[in-house]
Amino acid sequence: MTIRIDEEKVFRLIEERHPRAIVVNAPGGLQAQTRALTEKIREKYGVSCILVGDSCFGICDTVDEEVEKLDADMALHIGHNAAVSMVGDYTHLIDAVDDVSFDGVIEKAIPQLRSRRFEKVGLVTFSQHLHELKPVKERLEAAGFQVFLGKRNNLLLGGQVFGCDFSTAYPIRNEVDAFCFLGESEFHAVGLALSTGKPTYMLDPYLEEVVDMEEAAETRRKRAILSVYKALDAKVFGVITGLKEGQKMLGRTNWIVKRLGMHGRRVVQLAMRDITPERLAPLRDVDAFIQTDCPRMSIDGFTFDRPVLSIPQADALVRLLEGREIGEFLQRPKWIELTVGLIPRRK
Ligand code: SF4
User: Fold this and answer.
1) Are residues 253 and 284 part of one domain?
2) I need a labelling partner for 99 at 20 to 30 A (CA). Which of 125, 178, 250, 287 fits?
3) Taking 70 as the threshold, does the pLDDT of residue 214 lie above it?
4) Does some domain include residue 34?
5) Does the C-beta of 60 come closer than 6 Å to ligand 1?
6) Could you tell me the pTM of the whole model?
Protein backbone atom coordinates (compact mmCIF):
# COMPACT_ATOMS: atom_id res chain seq x y z
CA MET A 1 0.00 0.00 0.00
CA THR A 2 1.23 3.50 -0.84
CA ILE A 3 -0.40 6.84 -0.28
CA ARG A 4 0.59 9.07 -3.16
CA ILE A 5 0.40 12.87 -2.90
CA ASP A 6 -0.41 14.63 -6.18
CA GLU A 7 3.08 16.13 -6.55
CA GLU A 8 2.52 16.94 -10.23
CA LYS A 9 -0.17 19.42 -9.22
CA VAL A 10 2.14 20.98 -6.61
CA PHE A 11 4.95 21.41 -9.15
CA ARG A 12 2.55 22.82 -11.74
CA LEU A 13 1.24 25.38 -9.25
CA ILE A 14 4.75 26.47 -8.33
CA GLU A 15 5.76 26.83 -11.98
CA GLU A 16 2.62 28.87 -12.76
CA ARG A 17 2.60 31.10 -9.68
CA HIS A 18 6.28 31.43 -8.69
CA PRO A 19 5.62 31.66 -4.93
CA ARG A 20 8.31 33.12 -2.67
CA ALA A 21 7.39 30.94 0.33
CA ILE A 22 4.79 28.21 0.92
CA VAL A 23 2.97 27.16 4.09
CA VAL A 24 2.03 23.47 4.13
CA ASN A 25 -0.12 21.29 6.39
CA ALA A 26 -1.31 17.71 6.34
CA PRO A 27 -2.97 15.17 8.65
CA GLY A 28 -0.75 13.14 10.98
CA GLY A 29 -0.77 10.06 8.74
CA LEU A 30 0.70 12.02 5.82
CA GLN A 31 3.36 13.94 7.73
CA ALA A 32 6.30 11.85 6.51
CA GLN A 33 5.32 12.08 2.83
CA THR A 34 4.57 15.79 3.22
CA ARG A 35 7.97 16.48 4.78
CA ALA A 36 9.62 14.68 1.88
CA LEU A 37 7.59 16.84 -0.50
CA THR A 38 8.70 20.08 1.19
CA GLU A 39 12.31 18.98 0.81
CA LYS A 40 11.75 18.23 -2.87
CA ILE A 41 10.20 21.66 -3.42
CA ARG A 42 13.16 23.37 -1.75
CA GLU A 43 15.67 21.40 -3.82
CA LYS A 44 13.83 21.72 -7.13
CA TYR A 45 12.69 25.35 -6.95
CA GLY A 46 14.64 26.95 -4.07
CA VAL A 47 11.30 27.95 -2.53
CA SER A 48 11.04 28.17 1.25
CA CYS A 49 8.48 25.68 2.62
CA ILE A 50 7.10 25.83 6.17
CA LEU A 51 5.30 22.75 7.49
CA VAL A 52 2.75 23.76 10.15
CA GLY A 53 2.95 21.36 13.08
CA ASP A 54 -0.48 22.02 14.67
CA SER A 55 -3.17 19.36 14.65
CA CYS A 56 -4.79 18.73 11.26
CA PHE A 57 -7.82 16.45 11.22
CA GLY A 58 -9.94 17.65 8.33
CA ILE A 59 -10.62 20.20 5.64
CA CYS A 60 -11.60 22.57 8.47
CA ASP A 61 -7.91 22.66 9.43
CA THR A 62 -6.55 24.80 6.61
CA VAL A 63 -3.73 27.31 7.24
CA ASP A 64 -4.79 30.19 4.99
CA GLU A 65 -4.38 32.73 7.80
CA GLU A 66 -0.83 31.54 8.49
CA VAL A 67 0.28 32.62 5.02
CA GLU A 68 0.42 36.32 5.86
CA LYS A 69 1.66 35.70 9.41
CA LEU A 70 4.61 33.75 7.99
CA ASP A 71 5.26 36.20 5.13
CA ALA A 72 4.46 33.50 2.55
CA ASP A 73 2.27 33.76 -0.53
CA MET A 74 0.77 30.28 -0.99
CA ALA A 75 -0.57 27.43 1.19
CA LEU A 76 -0.91 23.73 0.39
CA HIS A 77 -3.41 21.62 2.34
CA ILE A 78 -2.61 17.97 1.71
CA GLY A 79 -4.86 14.95 1.78
CA HIS A 80 -8.42 16.24 2.13
CA ASN A 81 -9.59 15.92 -1.46
CA ALA A 82 -12.82 17.79 -2.17
CA ALA A 83 -15.05 19.21 -4.87
CA VAL A 84 -13.12 22.47 -4.67
CA SER A 85 -9.58 23.26 -5.78
CA MET A 86 -8.93 26.12 -3.36
CA VAL A 87 -10.20 27.40 -0.04
CA GLY A 88 -9.65 30.89 1.35
CA ASP A 89 -7.33 33.30 -0.46
CA TYR A 90 -4.14 31.26 -0.68
CA THR A 91 -4.83 27.58 -0.02
CA HIS A 92 -4.67 24.94 -2.74
CA LEU A 93 -6.06 21.50 -1.89
CA ILE A 94 -3.69 18.73 -2.91
CA ASP A 95 -5.11 15.23 -3.30
CA ALA A 96 -3.55 12.17 -1.75
CA VAL A 97 -4.58 8.77 -3.09
CA ASP A 98 -4.25 5.36 -1.43
CA ASP A 99 -3.59 2.55 -3.90
CA VAL A 100 -4.69 -0.34 -1.63
CA SER A 101 -6.91 -2.85 -3.44
CA PHE A 102 -10.52 -3.52 -2.40
CA ASP A 103 -10.77 -6.79 -4.37
CA GLY A 104 -10.38 -9.06 -1.32
CA VAL A 105 -12.84 -7.27 0.94
CA ILE A 106 -15.46 -6.96 -1.82
CA GLU A 107 -15.40 -10.74 -2.30
CA LYS A 108 -16.16 -11.09 1.42
CA ALA A 109 -18.82 -8.36 1.40
CA ILE A 110 -20.93 -9.83 -1.41
CA PRO A 111 -22.11 -12.99 0.46
CA GLN A 112 -22.68 -10.97 3.65
CA LEU A 113 -24.87 -8.43 1.89
CA ARG A 114 -26.77 -11.25 0.17
CA SER A 115 -27.30 -13.05 3.50
CA ARG A 116 -29.07 -9.94 4.82
CA ARG A 117 -31.17 -9.83 1.62
CA PHE A 118 -29.92 -6.37 0.73
CA GLU A 119 -30.47 -5.53 -2.92
CA LYS A 120 -29.91 -1.77 -3.05
CA VAL A 121 -26.60 -0.55 -1.72
CA GLY A 122 -25.27 3.00 -1.25
CA LEU A 123 -21.49 3.36 -1.77
CA VAL A 124 -19.60 5.93 0.24
CA THR A 125 -15.96 6.68 0.96
CA PHE A 126 -13.51 9.32 2.15
CA SER A 127 -10.86 11.31 0.30
CA GLN A 128 -8.12 8.71 -0.22
CA HIS A 129 -10.33 6.00 -1.79
CA LEU A 130 -12.56 8.08 -4.08
CA HIS A 131 -11.03 6.52 -7.18
CA GLU A 132 -12.28 3.09 -5.98
CA LEU A 133 -15.97 4.03 -6.12
CA LYS A 134 -16.36 3.29 -9.83
CA PRO A 135 -14.63 -0.13 -9.92
CA VAL A 136 -16.33 -1.26 -6.71
CA LYS A 137 -19.71 -0.11 -8.05
CA GLU A 138 -19.14 -2.14 -11.22
CA ARG A 139 -18.10 -5.20 -9.20
CA LEU A 140 -21.21 -5.02 -6.99
CA GLU A 141 -23.47 -4.47 -10.00
CA ALA A 142 -21.95 -7.51 -11.69
CA ALA A 143 -22.89 -9.45 -8.53
CA GLY A 144 -26.53 -8.36 -8.96
CA PHE A 145 -26.80 -5.38 -6.58
CA GLN A 146 -28.34 -2.05 -7.49
CA VAL A 147 -25.73 0.52 -6.47
CA PHE A 148 -26.34 4.18 -5.59
CA LEU A 149 -23.79 7.00 -5.30
CA GLY A 150 -24.73 10.27 -3.63
CA LYS A 151 -24.43 13.40 -5.80
CA ARG A 152 -21.57 15.87 -5.60
CA ASN A 153 -22.37 19.15 -3.83
CA ASN A 154 -20.47 22.32 -2.82
CA LEU A 155 -17.68 20.67 -0.92
CA LEU A 156 -18.03 16.92 -1.44
CA LEU A 157 -17.38 14.89 -4.55
CA GLY A 158 -19.96 12.23 -5.55
CA GLY A 159 -20.04 9.44 -2.95
CA GLN A 160 -17.67 11.27 -0.60
CA VAL A 161 -18.21 12.09 3.09
CA PHE A 162 -16.30 14.00 5.73
CA GLY A 163 -16.53 13.09 9.41
CA CYS A 164 -19.15 15.84 9.94
CA ASP A 165 -20.74 16.05 6.48
CA PHE A 166 -22.80 13.19 5.05
CA SER A 167 -24.80 15.35 2.65
CA THR A 168 -24.07 13.07 -0.32
CA ALA A 169 -25.40 9.94 1.41
CA TYR A 170 -28.26 11.41 3.43
CA PRO A 171 -30.53 12.22 0.45
CA ILE A 172 -30.32 8.64 -0.89
CA ARG A 173 -30.86 6.92 2.47
CA ASN A 174 -34.44 5.96 1.63
CA GLU A 175 -33.46 4.51 -1.75
CA VAL A 176 -30.99 2.00 -0.32
CA ASP A 177 -31.22 -1.01 2.00
CA ALA A 178 -27.73 -0.41 3.42
CA PHE A 179 -24.56 1.62 2.97
CA CYS A 180 -21.10 0.25 2.32
CA PHE A 181 -18.29 2.53 3.43
CA LEU A 182 -15.03 1.91 1.57
CA GLY A 183 -12.05 2.37 3.86
CA GLU A 184 -10.52 1.60 7.22
CA SER A 185 -12.00 4.59 9.07
CA GLU A 186 -14.42 3.65 11.83
CA PHE A 187 -14.77 7.38 12.46
CA HIS A 188 -16.37 7.97 9.04
CA ALA A 189 -18.36 4.71 8.95
CA VAL A 190 -19.95 5.31 12.38
CA GLY A 191 -20.83 8.87 11.36
CA LEU A 192 -22.47 7.57 8.20
CA ALA A 193 -24.55 5.07 10.21
CA LEU A 194 -25.61 7.74 12.73
CA SER A 195 -26.42 10.38 10.13
CA THR A 196 -28.47 8.13 7.84
CA GLY A 197 -29.91 5.72 10.41
CA LYS A 198 -29.30 2.87 7.91
CA PRO A 199 -27.44 -0.45 8.27
CA THR A 200 -23.82 0.42 7.47
CA TYR A 201 -20.84 -1.80 6.73
CA MET A 202 -17.22 -0.70 6.78
CA LEU A 203 -15.21 -2.50 4.09
CA ASP A 204 -11.67 -2.43 5.45
CA PRO A 205 -9.25 -3.17 2.58
CA TYR A 206 -6.23 -3.63 4.86
CA LEU A 207 -7.65 -6.30 7.17
CA GLU A 208 -10.02 -7.50 4.43
CA GLU A 209 -12.83 -7.31 6.97
CA VAL A 210 -16.49 -6.37 6.60
CA VAL A 211 -17.55 -4.64 9.82
CA ASP A 212 -21.20 -4.08 10.76
CA MET A 213 -21.26 -0.62 12.39
CA GLU A 214 -24.55 -1.08 14.24
CA GLU A 215 -23.09 -1.70 17.69
CA ALA A 216 -20.46 1.05 17.52
CA ALA A 217 -23.04 3.55 16.24
CA GLU A 218 -25.56 2.63 18.93
CA THR A 219 -22.94 3.06 21.68
CA ARG A 220 -22.11 6.54 20.43
CA ARG A 221 -25.76 7.47 19.97
CA LYS A 222 -26.57 6.49 23.56
CA ARG A 223 -23.53 8.36 24.88
CA ALA A 224 -24.52 11.47 22.92
CA ILE A 225 -28.07 11.34 24.33
CA LEU A 226 -26.79 10.82 27.88
CA SER A 227 -24.56 13.91 27.62
CA VAL A 228 -27.53 16.02 26.52
CA TYR A 229 -29.59 14.92 29.54
CA LYS A 230 -26.66 15.53 31.89
CA ALA A 231 -26.22 19.04 30.44
CA LEU A 232 -29.89 19.75 31.11
CA ASP A 233 -29.05 20.09 34.84
CA ALA A 234 -26.15 22.49 34.25
CA LYS A 235 -26.44 26.05 35.55
CA VAL A 236 -23.21 27.44 34.02
CA PHE A 237 -22.32 26.67 30.38
CA GLY A 238 -19.03 27.27 28.61
CA VAL A 239 -19.83 27.95 24.94
CA ILE A 240 -16.71 27.38 22.86
CA THR A 241 -16.31 28.87 19.39
CA GLY A 242 -13.86 26.97 17.19
CA LEU A 243 -10.80 28.90 16.08
CA LYS A 244 -9.95 26.62 13.16
CA GLU A 245 -10.54 28.20 9.78
CA GLY A 246 -13.41 25.91 8.83
CA GLN A 247 -15.10 25.95 12.23
CA LYS A 248 -15.77 29.60 13.03
CA MET A 249 -19.50 29.38 13.47
CA LEU A 250 -20.11 32.62 15.33
CA GLY A 251 -23.73 32.71 14.15
CA ARG A 252 -24.36 29.32 15.76
CA THR A 253 -22.50 30.34 18.91
CA ASN A 254 -24.67 33.45 19.26
CA TRP A 255 -27.83 31.43 18.64
CA ILE A 256 -26.90 28.96 21.39
CA VAL A 257 -25.82 31.67 23.86
CA LYS A 258 -29.13 33.47 23.35
CA ARG A 259 -31.21 30.29 23.88
CA LEU A 260 -29.32 29.37 27.06
CA GLY A 261 -29.83 32.90 28.40
CA MET A 262 -33.57 32.71 27.64
CA HIS A 263 -33.74 29.58 29.78
CA GLY A 264 -31.93 31.10 32.76
CA ARG A 265 -28.49 29.54 32.23
CA ARG A 266 -25.27 31.49 32.85
CA VAL A 267 -22.84 31.47 29.92
CA VAL A 268 -19.06 31.86 29.70
CA GLN A 269 -17.99 32.43 26.07
CA LEU A 270 -14.71 30.81 25.10
CA ALA A 271 -12.66 30.23 21.94
CA MET A 272 -10.27 27.32 21.29
CA ARG A 273 -8.40 25.61 18.48
CA ASP A 274 -8.27 22.17 20.07
CA ILE A 275 -10.53 21.07 22.92
CA THR A 276 -9.02 18.56 25.32
CA PRO A 277 -9.84 17.49 28.89
CA GLU A 278 -6.64 19.25 30.05
CA ARG A 279 -7.72 22.57 28.53
CA LEU A 280 -11.15 22.38 30.13
CA ALA A 281 -9.83 21.28 33.55
CA PRO A 282 -9.12 24.81 34.92
CA LEU A 283 -12.70 25.92 34.16
CA ARG A 284 -14.00 24.28 37.34
CA ASP A 285 -17.08 26.49 37.77
CA VAL A 286 -18.47 25.45 34.37
CA ASP A 287 -20.98 22.59 34.62
CA ALA A 288 -21.24 21.76 30.89
CA PHE A 289 -19.75 22.88 27.60
CA ILE A 290 -21.13 23.39 24.12
CA GLN A 291 -18.59 23.51 21.33
CA THR A 292 -18.90 24.61 17.70
CA ASP A 293 -15.58 22.98 16.77
CA CYS A 294 -15.47 19.43 15.48
CA PRO A 295 -18.63 17.49 16.44
CA ARG A 296 -16.63 14.27 16.53
CA MET A 297 -14.79 15.53 19.60
CA SER A 298 -18.07 15.25 21.51
CA ILE A 299 -19.49 12.19 19.81
CA ASP A 300 -16.49 9.86 19.70
CA GLY A 301 -13.52 11.81 20.93
CA PHE A 302 -12.08 12.33 24.38
CA THR A 303 -13.57 11.21 27.65
CA PHE A 304 -14.47 14.47 29.33
CA ASP A 305 -15.42 14.78 33.00
CA ARG A 306 -18.41 17.01 32.14
CA PRO A 307 -20.78 17.07 29.17
CA VAL A 308 -19.21 18.65 26.07
CA LEU A 309 -21.96 18.97 23.48
CA SER A 310 -21.58 19.30 19.73
CA ILE A 311 -23.96 21.45 17.66
CA PRO A 312 -26.51 18.65 17.00
CA GLN A 313 -26.51 17.86 20.74
CA ALA A 314 -26.92 21.56 21.56
CA ASP A 315 -29.95 21.64 19.26
CA ALA A 316 -31.34 18.63 21.16
CA LEU A 317 -30.71 20.40 24.48
CA VAL A 318 -32.59 23.48 23.26
CA ARG A 319 -35.50 21.25 22.22
CA LEU A 320 -35.63 19.79 25.73
CA LEU A 321 -35.38 23.25 27.32
CA GLU A 322 -38.34 24.28 25.17
CA GLY A 323 -40.34 21.29 26.36
CA ARG A 324 -40.12 19.39 23.07
CA GLU A 325 -39.02 15.79 22.33
CA ILE A 326 -35.28 15.24 22.00
CA GLY A 327 -35.69 13.68 18.50
CA GLU A 328 -33.12 11.81 16.38
CA PHE A 329 -30.76 14.79 16.45
CA LEU A 330 -27.82 13.02 14.79
CA GLN A 331 -29.89 12.05 11.75
CA ARG A 332 -29.18 15.04 9.52
CA PRO A 333 -27.05 15.59 6.39
CA LYS A 334 -24.40 17.72 8.14
CA TRP A 335 -23.47 18.01 11.79
CA ILE A 336 -21.83 21.38 11.22
CA GLU A 337 -21.73 23.85 8.37
CA LEU A 338 -18.03 24.11 7.53
CA THR A 339 -16.99 27.74 7.03
CA VAL A 340 -14.24 27.26 4.48
CA GLY A 341 -14.26 29.73 1.56
CA LEU A 342 -14.76 27.73 -1.61
CA ILE A 343 -13.35 27.97 -5.11
CA PRO A 344 -14.70 25.21 -7.43
CA ARG A 345 -12.38 22.43 -8.56
CA ARG A 346 -11.53 22.70 -12.26
CA LYS A 347 -10.45 19.18 -13.17
S1 SF4 B 1 -14.99 19.44 11.74
FE2 SF4 B 1 -15.51 17.97 10.15
S3 SF4 B 1 -13.85 18.18 8.62
FE4 SF4 B 1 -13.13 19.07 10.55
S5 SF4 B 1 -12.04 17.40 11.60
FE6 SF4 B 1 -14.16 17.45 12.36
S7 SF4 B 1 -15.20 15.96 11.10
FE8 SF4 B 1 -13.33 16.47 10.00
Assistant:
1) yes
2) 178
3) yes
4) yes
5) yes
6) 0.94
